[in-house]
Amino acid sequence: MLATAALAISLLSWSPATDAGELEIEWKAAAACDDSAALRRELGRYPLDTGEGVRVSVELRQLDDDEWSVALRLGLADRVVEQTFAAPSCERAIAATALAIATAIDPVGALARTSPVPEPKLETEPQPETETESEPEPEPETEPEPQPETGSKPKPKPKPKPAPQPPRRDLGLITQLAGQAALGPLPGFGPGMFGTLGLRIGATRVELVSNVGFPRVVTLPQRPDAGARMHVWTLGLRGCGEPSLRHASVAFPICIGVEAGPLAARGFGLDDNSRVRAAWVAAAGSAGVSWAPTRVFGVFAAVEGWVGATRPVTRIEDASVLHQPGSAGLRVRAGVEFRWPNNLWRRGHPQGS
């Protein structure tokens, strides 16, 4: 900012073209803009009513080559107005000062006479044309892949086929050996033996069955030293179904079959101690449970009932009846079994239904 080189101070008394009052102006300005007459001319554009008189103080300073600062103070009858503003030239500063004085004294009249100050036209210099780089050629557009229709479900991919499993070993041999207690066909409730040899196909079995009843002694009521020694053995055929638990090595065989064999007796203490035989035939059915703690070995227990188809009679010399089997009987047995190959177990789990 540049300080003012010189100040011209003048005290003016001036009355505008109106009959009302007097306008007293105190003017301070730099030498480059010491033109109080220009301020009077600008004020003459406004019909001012100063009333009992107005005292105006104006100080105009040059800030730089293109800007002027105005400090304005008006002493009115009822108030004091102070304003500070800047203008781009001396002429603009004087015109703005006159407008500020007129607006403070008579705002309505001043605004009615205000005419817009024309703005200087700004000429723009033509800009030199710059060489624009050539735009790269656009890449060819690729066709979008067709999208599936809305609402249509994508087709599921086919699942891979599982690897073929090795064939199950559904064919094997089984044999059982057990001790049993039997009620019939021999007299009383006595011990015996039981054995099978069979072919296993899946969860079914076909077996040859043998039952042996240990000898029993039957004495005459009137002669305890005389009587007969009796025994029986049978051979039969039966079929079995063997449901099992899938996650345990436990099976529940259910069997039905037929058997037949000689019921034999040899006398003692009699005049004729010869040996006699008679055929005994029966149908039998059993239910049991088996458990295989190893791959080829297991234990089992079963209860079997039978119904006799024949009832041979054993007589002594005087034709007295020594023994005749009942119409039905019962056997209870427990034993072991062996399997070749093992069908009850497969990778640690039993097979069968």
UniProtKB/TrEMBL annotation:
Sorted UniProt keywords: Signal
Biased composition, class Acidic residues, residue ranges: 126-146
Region: Disordered, residue numbers: 112-170
Domain of life: Bacteria
Signal peptide: 1-20
Protein name: Procyclic acidic repetitive protein
